Amino acid sequence: DIFVNDAFGTAHRAHASTAGVADYLPAVCGYLVQKEVSIMGKALADPERPFVAILGGAKVSDKINVINNLLEKADTIIIGGGMAYTFKKAEGYTIGKSLLEEDKLDYAREMMQKAEAKGVKFLLPVDNLCAAEFSASAKPVLEEQNIPNELMGMDIGPKAIEAFSDAVKGAGTVVWNGPMGVFEFPAFAKGTEAVAEALSKTSAITIIGGGDSAAAVEQLGYADKMTHISTGGGAFLEFLEGKTLPAIAVLEERADQ
Description:
Layout: E1 3-5, H1 16-20, E2 27-29, H2 31-45, E3 51-55, H3 64-70, E4 76-79, H4 84-91, H5 105-118, E5 121-123, E6 128-131, E7 141-143, E8 152-156, H6 158-169, E9 173-177, H7 190-201, E10 205-208, H8 212-219, E11 228-229, H9 234-241, H10 246-256
Helix pairs in contact: 3-9, 4-5, 6-7
């Protein structure tokens, strides 16, 4: 008789079971979708300021449009995880064997220039926990801005932790998506854990993207301190990009009819 979509995690996919059915039945969203869209919608359209966005994870290419869109809205953008090393290389630092997307160096420079022109603080790690190999048993080595050729960045260092935590302290709204390092290896989980802890202590509205960020706050016992933990990974990112989510759009169209 009626179609209720409460699956925000698949709202970015135009599938028969998400967007298709709504063309044939009276269609509404459930309470979870309503909460996701209203909390994140306000964070992007009318955030409590300062608005801080924390982005991590492996690849710049996954977050290209997110960074671009957030530069129009955020007061501070913090970059950690493997994607930070493409930005560090673009700044002129050596990054050793760290993750690098060579074809995104120009884009990284462009984003940093855009941030400067707009007066958006763009924070990158000023020190790094490194290792000679990608392994849980690898010995952590602390390096400052330049990483030697034989090492790879695996996590943010203590100075970066302090800078990122300070940025969160005075925030009005914080959106976080993506770990700060190789979170699955305990020796390189400190950066992600510290960001989760900083978010648990701030009075800001805190919105956590699905995936590793959600896993981190759940694992560390901070889930009840967050304003909202999204159930969507890909859907959350596309929402941050400013993209239309097909399964939500079709419900909005039905509501207007």
